[in-house]
Design goal:
The chain is an all-alpha fold. It is built from 11 helices and 3 strands; from the N terminus they run E-H-H-H-E-H-H-H-E-H-H-H-H-H. Helix content is 74%, strand content 3%. The chain is globular.
């Protein structure tokens, strides 16, 4: 079928019901974005410069920091431009890029959390064989697998979204481009893209969450059998940070993509939490609860 897209740009209306609050929102989002960049860059610097942190756990944490840097940059800079200079238009290519990278990085993060749970399972349940199982070749393959698999998912949903004809309104009542707000403007049947999106976005996270849950059930059983209370507390402390960020990710995502008919008043705060706040909170969670990362920060400062 020939590409009948005649819309060359979209207009983003931003966050609904915030007229007159542009300056406050600009300062708030700019501060959060700068804190996100600083926090994740500090974690990357600490891990890369401290040889004690050159372990599988921190290798995956590096990947998470890179993901958070990218995830926070998908829509925040454009939204800041909307607030500051009222530049509400986004090109068709820019809109495609937002959809692609949102689902590429989101899917990668989902898979990465699963790999991190498996890493904790091996470390706690099979400590004597940990370095043998989680060797650098395995870690590299698991990390690369997360990124490559997600690129296929993002390519499929983005291609299906933008091969639809857009020949009517180009106004998106949202602050960034995502599949469901965009396909509402299509002047064609959208049942295929909806089915594929629900399948891809539904099955992959549910499978990942099930695997994460299974890992933590095994970890809990292993902790109960530990004779040393100190070892048990250390195991729980090691897993607690990961469990918190998993809740940050899967809770809002489940609401967004199992209930696509959510009104903008409900969906927008959830999207803001996922895209803007979570990338800032992740470094805080891992830093505040992790003595080794805090020690690396002190070492960087010369402490």
């Amino acid at each position: 079928m020939a590409n009948r897209t005649v819309v060359s740009e979209f207009i983003l209306l931003g966050i609904p019901n915030t007229e007159g609050l542009e300056n406050i929102l600009f300062v708030t989002f700019l501060c959060i974005y700068l804190c996100t960049l600083l926090g994740n860059l500090l974690i990357l610097a600490a891990i890369l410069t401290d040889p004690r942190l050159h372990t599988p756990m921190y290798f995956f944490l590096c990947n998470l920091a890179v993901l958070d840097l990218g995830f926070s940059s998908i829509s925040t800079p454009k939204f800041l431009a909307i607030l500051w200079v009222e530049s509400k238009t986004i090109s068709l290519g820019g809109c495609m890029s937002q959809v692609f990278f949102y689902h590429f990085l989101g899917s990668t993060e989902c898979l990465l959390y699963t790999v991190m749970a498996y890493d904790r399972y091996v470390a706690i349940c099979h400590p004597l064989r940990y370095l043998l199982i989680m060797n650098w070749r395995v870690c590299a393959l698991l990390g690369a697998g997360c990124w490559i698999t997600s690129s296929f998912h993002a390519t499929i949903v983005t291609s299906l979204t933008f091969t639809l004809p857009y020949c009517g309104s180009n106004v998106l009542d949202y602050f960034f481009c995502d599949i469901f707000p965009v396909i509402k403007l299509a002047c064609a049947d959208t049942s295929i893209i909806k089915t594929v999106s629900f399948t891809n976005i539904g099955v992959v996270p549910m499978t990942c969450f099930t695997l994460i849950l299974a890992s933590y059930v095994r970890i809990a059983a292993s902790v109960v059998r530990m004779r040393s209370m100190e070892h048990g507390r250390k195991a729980i402390s090691t897993c607690a940070s990961h469990m918190i960020v998993v809740c940050f990710f899967f809770g809002p995502s489940t609401l967004l993509y199992t209930q696509p008919s959510l009104s903008n008043l409900v969906a927008t705060p959830i999207h803001i939490f996922c895209e803007v706040l979570t990338p800032m909170l992740n470094p805080l969670v891992y830093t505040l609860r992790n003595k080794e990362v805090k020690a690396a920060f002190w070492k960087m400062r010369g402490g």
